[in-house]
Structure formats: structure tokens, C-alpha cells
């Protein structure tokens, strides 16, 4: 199905010493990075290259799988194994890889078009299966590679080349979609907040199961300023809330705003007004029994609410590849190793004359 | 004064080709400016080109490198003569 040229960046050398010796440079390929100057993708690439040497995993045990789009050029720039694969199908290919080689650290890099339009089907099934994949969705809310058409995350009313009078499509909320499909790790980060992005990626790397990270990423050419309120130093403190497990949701440049729950309604409040104290604020819980809180948070958007960044949900359940290995082991105990030819020739068979 | 790229740099490469003095290059963690080559665009443009294009506003005047407009002009002329 795949031609050999699709399999890129083969690491032909022996492992570069023990993993502790690896540095960011060891994960930089010799390819010229061909994103537009100013693109947020560079930030994600640099942070991933910075993270990998800290994970204690040999370089040849990483694989980066992508689909199609600007973000999907990612594997070319990683000095790891990788595949620039089929549009929207990276989760399927990565799932197969992880099942065949559970010892590998398998990463999917995708975009809002690749993951949520043509790949929407594969995306939700990766979430529900809980295959041990790290899925990074670089969301710039536009089709960049094809030069500026609206995407499944473009906001209503947005004027693009394919929506000259403004989009009438209601956008996907990628986090809500992932949570609805049963994702066990869901997080959001920003391309320009490097330390926070690094910490979220590190958490995703440690998760056992499908780890989904949505990264708000600026497209400087076709959707510049999409996240200005969240990134601008003058507005960002009031426009976003950084989620911390076990801590009350406080935000604002004076750290005096917070979130309270009134029944099933959230409200952004000011601490000190109307008798509100920090003790009244909603406390974040990544490991809640169900995903209701995370889903609630995923609905927050400006200007009424701060946009949450950080880990929304992180719970442990058996991974798909562990369940598959368990079932295969049970089958071997019950029926022996088995032969493929015997299996294919078993059951009801016909001879056509 | 020469310019300085702070650790807010996202490594997006946009500044490198804009520099008329070829003072900007990729560093280990972020892009860096060679202060000996940076004239803040004095001699070339009215405004510092890198500051103008940086999408995350991470380029500032280096507080450790104070130079007057005359010194920058002098640096520019020496760079051009070299």
C-alpha cells in the first residue's frame, strides 16, 4: 500500500549511546524546515525536540506519524522513524504500528483539517480505543497548506476564500469531541507559551493511553492573530486560566478572578466581591470519576469566560494494546500458537469448479 | 545599542532573512543576534526589521549593549567597508 519513499528519516546508525546522552540536536533532522517564517509550528517542533531526550527512550524507539497538511510535515524534521502518511489516517496507521511494536513511543502530529475533517472518523476511534499514542493537533483554525480555506474549527462568520460571506458552519470543539469519544488524556496548550507547552507535552508523554493535546497555533499567513487575546501580554492574563490539578481556578492579571459553579452553570467572578473568597472557587480535578468537569471546561470561551489551558483530564484505564496482548495470550493458552494457513482453511469452505 | 532576542522566541525563523547585516542565526534554544553585527538597522532602514516582523515581540534593545546612534552608524560603515 505504501511506497518506500513514504517511509522517511530512517535512522541507519546504531543507537547514539545510552538515551541519557541524547540532546535536542540528536532529534533535529538534516532537512530544511519549510514552514512559513513566523509559523507557530516551529515552536511545537522545538519543544518536542527538547522533550524527547528527557524521556529516557532510545532514539530509534520513537516514531512520528502524520497525515496531510502543514503540521504533517513534522516527521521530516524529526531525526526519528516516521511516516508522512495518508490524509486523516495517521491515527489508524499509528494504531497499527503501536499494536505491532508496543515497545515504540508513537506520536501523531495532525492539524484541524487532517484530524477533524477528512480524519474525523479515525480521530474519534483513536480516542475511544485508548491506544498508547500521543496525538498533537496543531489547530490554526484554517487550511494553511491549501492557502486559506475555512476548516472545521474556523469560527462562525469567518470570511475565507471558501466562505466569502462568512462561515455558517458551527465549528468543532476538539477537546469536547475527544472527551465525548472517551479520551483518557485531554490537554490544551499555546504555541507561544513555551514553558507551559513543554510541561503539557511532558505530561502527555508520560500518559499510558491515547494522549490528546490541542495546540493553538498561529498561521501567520492565512489566519494571523487567531489567538491574539490569549497570547498578547496585555490581555492574556484575563483571557485564559491555567488549569492545575487540585487548585482553585484563579486567573486575571491581578489574580483576583475565578470560576465558581452555581448548580450546572459556571460563572466568572471577582474574588472579594459579593463575599466571594478563594474557598468558593471551582477546584480542578483531572482525575474526576467522569469527564463532566473537563467537558464543562472545554466549553469556556471568551469574552465571558477565560479559555482554559493545561491538562483537562488524565485518567488511567487499560490501553488497547494491553487488552489486545492479553486476549492474544489467552487465545494461545486455550488453542496453542496456531497456523495462519490452518485458520484460513478452517470452517466452512467451498471449492469452485 | 544592539538588539537581543529573549527566551520568548519560538524559533519561527521569520527574523533571520530580514536582517540586513546577517547578524541573526539559529542558536541552541532560540535565535540569537550577533551584537557586533547588529546596527538596529541604522544605515539600512528607519526601523529595526526583526522587531517589525517578530510575531511574538521577543526582540528588545540589549540593556548590556548601549550604543548611540552615531556609534551604530559608525558600526554600519565599518561593516559595509569590511
How would you describe this protein?
- The complex is a heterodimer of chains A (353) and B (82).
- Chain A has two domains: 4-247 and 284-321, Rossmann fold; 250-283, no CATH class.
- Chain A is 28% helix and 18% strand.
- With 353 residues, chain A is an alpha/beta fold.
- In chain A, the strands form two sheets. In chain A, strands 1-3-2-4-5-7-6-12-8 form a nine-stranded mixed beta sheet, sandwiched between helices. A three-stranded antiparallel beta sheet of chain A has the order 9-10-11.
- In chain A, strand 6 (185-190), helix 7 (194-206) and strand 7 (211-216) form a beta-alpha-beta unit.
- In chain A, helix 1 (41-51) crosses helix 7.
- Chain B has 82 residues and is α+β, with helices and mostly antiparallel strands.
- Chain B has helices at residues 49-53, 69-81; strands at 3-5, 24-26, 31-33, 59-61.
- In chain B, the strands form two sheets. Chain B has a two-stranded antiparallel sheet with strand order 1-4. In chain B, strands 2-3 form a two-stranded antiparallel sheet.
- Chain B is globular.
- The model of chain B has no long low-confidence stretch (mean pLDDT 93).
Structure characteristics:
heterodimer, A: 353 residues, alpha/beta, Rossmann fold, three-stranded antiparallel beta sheet, 12 helices, globular, B: 82 residues, alpha+beta, Alpha-Beta Plaits, two-stranded antiparallel sheet, 2 helices
Mean pLDDT of chain B: 93
Number of helices of chain B: 2
Count of extended strands of chain B: 4
Strand order of the largest sheet of chain A: 1-3-2-4-5-7-6-12-8
Count of DSSP strands of chain A: 12
Shape verdict of chain B: globular
Strand order of the largest sheet of chain B: 1-4
The main sheet of chain A comes to: 9 strands, mixed
Poorly predicted residue ranges of chain A:
1-17
Distance between the termini of chain B: 20 Å
Category from helices, strands and their pairing of chain A: alpha/beta
Q: What name is given to the CATH topology of chain B?
A: Alpha-Beta Plaits
> What's the alpha carbon Rg of chain B, rounded to whole Å?
12 Å
- What does the radius of gyration of chain A come to? 22 Å
The CATH superfamily of the largest domain in chain A is: Thiamin diphosphate (ThDP)-binding fold, Pyr/PP domains
Globally, the shape of chain A reads globular
Order of helices and strands of chain B: EEEHEH
What's the quaternary structure here?
heterodimer
User: What helical percentage do the residues of chain B reach?
Assistant: 10-25%
> What percentage of amino acids of chain B are in beta strands?
5-15%
Amino acid at each position: 500500500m505504501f511506497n518506500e519513499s513514504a517511509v522517511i528519516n530512517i535512522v541507519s546508525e546504531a543507537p547514539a549511546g545510552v538515551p541519557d546522552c541524547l540532546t535536542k540536536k540528536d532529534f533535529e533532522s538534516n532537512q530544511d524546515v519549510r514552514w512559513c517564517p513566523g509559523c507557530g509550528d516551529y515552536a511545537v517542533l522545538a519543544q518536542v525536540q527538547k522533550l524527547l531526550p528527557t524521556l529516557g527512550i532510545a532514539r530509534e524507539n520513537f516514531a512520528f506519524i502524520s497525515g496531510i497538511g502543514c503540521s504533517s510535515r513534522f516527521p521530516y524534521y524529526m531525526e526519528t522513524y516516521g511516516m508522512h502518511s495518508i490524509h486523516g489516517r495517521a491515527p489508524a496507521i499509528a494504531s497499527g504500528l503501536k499494536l505491532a511494536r508496543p515497545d515504540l513511543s508513537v506520536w501523531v502530529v495532525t492539524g484541524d483539517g487532517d484530524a477533524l475533517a477528512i480524519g474525523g472518523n479515525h480521530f474519534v476511534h483513536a480516542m475511544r480505543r485508548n491506544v498508547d499514542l500521543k496525538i498533537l493537533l496543531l489547530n490554526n483554525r484554517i487550511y494553511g497548506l491549501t492557502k486559506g480555506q475555512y476548516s472545521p474549527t474556523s469560527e462562525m462568520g469567518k470570511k475565507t476564500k471558501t466562505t466569502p460571506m462568512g462561515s455558517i458552519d458551527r465549528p468543532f470543539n476538539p477537546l469536547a469531541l475527544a472527551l465525548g469519544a472517551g479520551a483518557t488524556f485531554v490537554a490544551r496548550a499555546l504555541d507561544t507559551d513555551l514553558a507551559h507547552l513543554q510541561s503539557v507535552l511532558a505530561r502527555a508523554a508520560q500518559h499510558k493511553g491515547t494522549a490528546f493535546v490541542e495546540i493553538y497555533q498561529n498561521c501567520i499567513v492565512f489566519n494571523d492573530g487567531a489567538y491574539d487575546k490569549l497570547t498578547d501580554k496585555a490581555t492574556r492574563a484575563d483571557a485564559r486560566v491555567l488549569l492545575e490539578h487540585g487548585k482553585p481556578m484563579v486567573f486575571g492579571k491581578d489574580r483576583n478572578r475565578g470560576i465558581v459553579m452555581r448548580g450546572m452553570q459556571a460563572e466568572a467572578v471577582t474574588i472579594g466581591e459579593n463575599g466571594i473568597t478563594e474557598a468558593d472557587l471551582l477546584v480542578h480535578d483531572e482525575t474526576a470519576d467522569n469527564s463532566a468537569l473537563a467537558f464543562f471546561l472545554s466549553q469556556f470561551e471568551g469574552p465571558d469566560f477565560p479559555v482554559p489551558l493545561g491538562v483537562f483530564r488524565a485518567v488511567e484505564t487499560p490501553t488497547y494494546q494491553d487488552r489486545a496482548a492479553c486476549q492474544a495470550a489467552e487465545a494461545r493458552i486455550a488453542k496453542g500458537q496456531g497456523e495462519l494457513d490452518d485458520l484460513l482453511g478452517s470452517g466452512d469452505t467451498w471449492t469452485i469448479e | 545599542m544592539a538588539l537581543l532576542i529573549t527566551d520568548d522566541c519560538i524559533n519561527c525563523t521569520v527574523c533571520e532573512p530580514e536582517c540586513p547585516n546577517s547578524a541573526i542565526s539559529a542558536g541552541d534554544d532560540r535565535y540569537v543576534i550577533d551584537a557586533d553585527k547588529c546596527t538596529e538597522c541604522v544605515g539600512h532602514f528607519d526601523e529595526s526589521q526583526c522587531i517589525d516582523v517578530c510575531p511574538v515581540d521577543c526582540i528588545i534593545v540589549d540593556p548590556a549593549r548601549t550604543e548611540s546612534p552615531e556609534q551604530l552608524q559608525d558600526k554600519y560603515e565599518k561593516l559595509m567597508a569590511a
